[in-house]
Write a structure and sequence with these properties.
Elements lengths: L4 E3 L9 E3 L2 H10 L7 E5 L5 E10 L4 E10 L6 E8 L4 H12 L4 E6 L9 H22 L6 E2 L3 E2 H5 L6 E5 L5 E2 L12 E7 L7 H9 L3 E4 L7 H16 L4
Helix pairs in contact: 2-3, 2-6
Length: 248
């Protein structure tokens, strides 16, 4: 029997009966066509639990579930990665967000850079951010994560570079001295934090790389080949998780 895993921004209490959100209803009833008695899994994005729930009332426009069980989920990496991603065209940005969440990224900030090639009005930008957040939620549903990473408000690269942080700051550069696997670094405490800067299609300009260096971003090397922006982001995240996180 199918047991789909669905996000709902609600507080869940064992043995309570509650109404599904419109988004959850649309996916579970209209798309998957589940019926009364079927079991689903719910999570709310801000706690390390997921909940088994039974459909107890299904109508044309709404459905209710009974919360029957709670399970702790321990699949978050000790490595906290904040991805600063230069906004790219078409599906590349969507793909990067989806796969970076599967790999364990915690926060994503879309960045306006010299070569991003994407111009959005305030209204379109707001809708785009909502779309990106939905992609992140869907990736959490698929990958089993309970905590939903935030897609923050898109900002200019310089503004992001100037944000105060104690995280290790890294920027990809083909002529860097160290790779992710060889960079000399020692984290303090159990929580390890990294800010990873990835340029858009065409990469960062020389001036932007200089600005990143001035903001204490260290240049790192991925390898001898030139990677597309989405490939670079996912390769770097994988390497970080292999060295500092939970990928074996």
């Amino acid at each position: 029997m199918r047991n789909p895993r669905v996000y709902q921004n609600s507080e869940f209490t064992l043995n309570d009966t509650m109404k599904l959100s419109d988004d959850a209803f649309g996916h579970i009833v209209r798309v998957l066509r589940l019926v009364e008695g079927d079991i689903i899994t719910l999570f709310n994005g801000n706690e390390a639990f997921q909940y088994s729930a039974k459909l107890v009332e299904v109508k044309k426009k709404q459905a209710s579930v009974e919360i029957i069980n709670r399970t702790v989920v321990k699949n978050e990496s000790l490595l906290n990665i904040h991805l600063g991603q230069g906004i790219s065209r078409g599906d590349r940005m969507d793909f990067t967000l989806q796969k970076s969440v599967e790999l364990g990224v915690n926060t994503i900030t879309p960045l306006f850079t010299e070569r991003c090639g994407v111009k959005l009005s305030a209204e379109r930008l707001s809708k785009k951010r909502e779309q990106w957040q939905k992609i992140v939620i869907s990736a959490c549903e698929q990958s089993g994560r309970c905590f939903v990473p935030e897609v923050t408000q898109p900002v200019l690269l310089q503004d992001w570079l100037n944000e105060k942080t104690k995280a290790l700051k890294l920027n990809l550069h083909p002529k860097a001295e160290h790779s992710i696997m060889t960079i000399p670094v020692k984290f303090e405490g159990d929580r390890q934090e990294v800010r990873l800067l990835i340029g858009p299609e065409g990469g960062l300009s020389d001036e932007e790389i200089s600005q990143a260096n001035q903001a204490d971003f260290q240049d790192i090397l991925l390898g001898p080949r030139v990677l597309r922006t989405e490939t670079a982001a996912l390769t770097a995240i994988t390497a970080l998780q292999c060295r500092f996180g939970d990928l074996a």
